[in-house]
Amino acid sequence: MPKTPFTFRGLIVPVLTPFNNDSKRTLNLSIIPQYAEYLAKKKITGVLVNGTTGEGTSMSVPERKLVTEAWATAVKTTKQHLMVQVGGGPLPEVLELAKHAESIKADSLLCLPELYFKPTTSDQLTEYLKLVSDAASNTPLLYYHIPMLTNVNVHMGQFLESLGEQIPTFVGIKFTSSALDEGAQALHANNKKYAIFLGNDQLMSAATALGMDSCIATSINMLPEYALEILAEGRKGNSIKAREKQEQLSRAVIAISKYGNWVETMKIAMPLLTNINTGPVRPPLKTLSSEITAAMAKDLQTLGFETKI
Predict the structure, then answer these.
(1) Residue 289's pLDDT is what?
(2) What is the largest distance, in Å, between two alpha-carbon atoms of the chain?
(3) Catalytic residue among 35, 128, 144, 194, which?
(4) Nearest to 71, CA basis, from 20, 19, 15
(5) In the chain, which residues have pLDDT < 50?
(6) What pLDDT, on a 0 to 100 scale, did the predictor assign at position 308?
(7) With contact defined as beta carbons under 8 Å apart, do 146 and 176 qualify?
(8) What are the pLDDT digits (tens) for 188-214?
(9) Cα separation of 89 and 60, whole Å?
(10) Could you count the other beta carbons within 10 Å of the beta carbon of residue 11?
(11) How many other CB atoms sit within 10 Å of the CB of residue 121?
(12) pLDDT value at position 53?
């Protein structure tokens, strides 16, 4: 068992990694304290570092450690839950990152599956995650299910039902999928033993109607009030109010994401809608043009959102 039980429920924001606008897209760690403070003031009590939104798989191991350390320092002040995504590399690097996250006292670990020799069964996925758990045996571990990017299609309800006590530190999943029937099965697995964090920005209200109470979604970075309200109304059973807020948030998400890759567009939206500028994306992603930025700003303004340009 992990030393600390995993009790966190609610919203965790997958933070963007700040890069400088130089040729190598070097890390710009200096804005992380301000970023953490901004989220804390918006009542966001958890952060996920080095996930998809944070371009974790585009960074070297030393860089990922530096970003993790910067957030670990920042959350000492803001008292936010620190979840660190350690997967997405060769297994020795994944284990090194897991050990490092535990050494800097991360509150939980999130781990992608093996991305080349992909697991195709629950047993194979369990064996992989057990290795990660063994490397950080005092820290709660969650699995990152994002089949549209990993092409790992192990059914999450069946996986969680099959686990038993095989991974002592295992506490839940990030479920980035629109298959809510599978998500509901995962939620009810083993008498609701596991934390299920929905990773789909446009299905939060639907998920709350199914009984989910936790989300990790990129749009929380720039429009946190909407996610907080969706969750609060959903928990109270006010499905109509939750759906109305969801529709407003979804319109913004569609207006942003239609201009390119998810991370490319969200990284542009952040300084449009907040005072935090996390800079450009890293190759192979492309930094969007000023024309696209202006068009996105106009679309958001048309929907009633205030933008910085």
Answers:
(1) 96
(2) 53
(3) 144
(4) 15
(5) none
(6) 87
(7) yes
(8) 999 999 999 999 999 999 999 999 999
(9) 9
(10) 24
(11) 12
(12) 98
Give the type of residue at 218: T
* Amino acid 1: pLDDT: 65
Q: Which pLDDT does position 3 carry in this prediction?
A: 64
Q: Report the C-alpha gap between 113 and 99 in whole angstroms.
A: 17
Q: Cβ-count burial of 307 within 10 angstroms (0-12 exposed, 13-18 middle, 19+ buried)?
A: middle
Residues 6+ positions from 229 with CB-CB distance below 8 Å: 241, 242, 245
> Catalytic one among 174, 194, 226, 245?
174
Q: Are 79 and 73 in contact (CB under 8 A)?
A: no
Give whole-number Cα distances, 154 to 82, 157, 175, 211, 232, in Å.
Answer: 27, 9, 12, 22, 31
Q: Is 226 a catalytic residue?
A: no
- Percent of the chain beyond pLDDT 90? 98
Q: How far apart are CA 305 and CA 309, in angstroms?
A: 11
Structure-token pair, residue 139: 């820290």
Q: Is 259 a catalytic residue?
A: no
| Phi, psi angles (nearest 5°) of residue 170 | -75, 130
Cβ count within 10 A of residue 31 = 15
